[in-house]
Design brief:
The protein is of the alpha/beta class. Helices cover about 45% and strands about 15% of the residues. The strands form two sheets. Strands 3-2-1-4-8-6-9 form a seven-stranded mixed beta sheet, sandwiched between helices. A three-stranded mixed beta sheet has the order 5-10-7. Strand 2, helix 2 and strand 3 form a beta-alpha-beta unit. Helix 12 packs across helix 13. The longest helix is centred in the C-terminal third of the chain and has 23 residues.
Length: about 300
C-alpha cells in the first residue's frame, strides 16, 4: 500500500439528541497516537433535549475539539455540508454520532489505504441477541451484504455516511443535496453523483460498531419516513435502491394491486406485530413493500 499523503484530518460528527462525548474521547486517543494534525467538530442540528446539549458542551474542553450548537434543524444533508465548510483540513472523516470505535487501528487503517479520494469503512453490528428488537434483527440479517467485498461489487450503491473518509474538496464540489431534509437516502444520492463524475470509491473493512437500536415503534416510524423520502426522490434514486429496483421489476399490474390491497387490509395488524415484542422480519419486508406501493 502506498503512503498516504494525509498529515492532517478533520473529523466531522453531526448529532441530534445524542450524547457523543465518549465517542470524541475515543477518537482523541487514536488521533493523538497517529501523530497527525487533527480537529474534531461536532455540530448539533437543533436538538430538542437541553440535557443532551448541555452534556455535549464538555466537548469544547477537549483539545482541538469544537461543539457547535445550531438552533434550527436543517436536516441530514445540510448539516454535513455545514461541517465540511467548517473543516480546516484537506481530508475529512464523517462519523455518525451513534457509532462506537471498536478497533485501536481505526485511524491508522485510513492512513494506510493510499491516496484514494473516497473511502467507506463500513459498519458492523454489535451483538445484543435481542430477538425482541426489530432494528437489531434487521441489521443483523443485512450484515452479510455489508462486507467490503460485497460493497465493492456495486461501490456507488453502497455509500454510507456513518463512516466515510474523503478529500474535503470533493464534498465542497459535490455537496449533499439539501432537498433531503428528512430521514434517509441523502448518502445514496451522493453515491450517484460521485458515479456520474467518475470519482472512485474504495470500500474497506474498517468498521465502526453500531449498537444504538431504537425501540420498535421509533424504528417503524423512521422506516416509514425513509420510504416517503425514497418515493419523493424516486426519479433521482432509480438504479441506486434495491427496493426501487425490485418494484420496477414487477411488470404485472395485478400483482402490484394485490400487494396494495393486502397492505390496506393488514397494515394495522402488521404494524402491531412490528411494534410489539416478537416482530418478524418477513412481516417487516412485506410492510415496507406495501407501505411504499401505497404511496403511489
Amino acid at each position: 500500500m502506498s503512503e498516504h499523503p494525509m498529515q492532517s484530518l478533520s473529523v466531522l460528527i453531526p448529532t441530534y439528541n445524542d450524547v457523543c462525548v465518549a465517542l470524541v474521547e475515543q477518537l482523541l486517543q487514536l488521533l493523538q497516537a497517529a501523530n497527525i494534525q487533527y480537529e474534531v467538530i461536532v455540530a448539533d442540528d437543533g436538538s430538542t433535549d437541553e440535557d443532551i446539549i448541555a452534556a455535549n458542551r464538555a466537548i469544547n474542553q477537549l483539545p482541538s475539539c469544537r461543539f457547535i450548537e445550531r438552533q434550527m434543524n436543517v436536516g441530514r444533508a445540510a448539516i454535513r455540508n455545514f461541517l465540511a465548510m467548517e473543516a480546516r483540513f484537506s481530508y475529512i472523516l464523517f462519523i455518525d454520532s451513534d457509532m462506537t470505535i471498536i478497533s485501536d487501528q481505526y485511524i491508522q487503517r485510513y492512513l494506510q489505504v493510499g491516496d484514494t479520494t473516497v473511502i467507506d469503512g463500513g459498519v458492523t453490528i454489535c451483538d445484543t441477541n435481542d430477538a425482541s428488537n426489530l432494528r437489531y434483527l434487521y441489521e443483523k440479517a443485512e450484515e452479510p451484504h455489508h462486507t467490503a467485498t460485497e460493497r465493492q461489487k456495486c461501490p456507488y450503491q453502497h455509500l454510507h455516511t456513518a463512516n466515510l473518509f474523503m478529500q474535503r474538496d470533493i464534498i465542497l464540489a459535490h455537496p449533499f443535496d439539501e432537498r433531503f431534509r428528512h430521514y434517509g437516502y441523502e448518502d445514496v444520492l451522493l453515491g450517484k453523483v460521485l458515479h456520474q463524475h467518475h470519482i472512485p470509491i474504495e470500500h474497506i473493512d474498517n468498521p465502526l460498531g453500531f449498537s444504538h437500536f431504537e425501540t420498535n415503534p421509533v424504528f417503524v416510524a423512521k422506516t416509514e419516513e425513509g420510504l416517503r423520502t425514497l418515493y419523493q426522490f424516486r426519479n433521482d434514486l432509480r438504479g441506486y435502491s434495491r427496493l426501487l429496483t425490485f418494484v420496477s421489476g414487477i411488470h404485472i399490474p395485478l400483482i402490484l394491486s394485490l400487494i396494495r390491497f393486502w397492505h390496506r387490509l393488514f397494515k394495522k395488524a402488521e404494524r402491531r406485530n412490528l411494534c410489539g415484542s416478537r416482530p418478524f422480519l418477513w412481516v417487516f419486508k412485506l410492510y415496507r413493500l406495501g407501505y411504499y406501493l401505497s404511496l403511489q
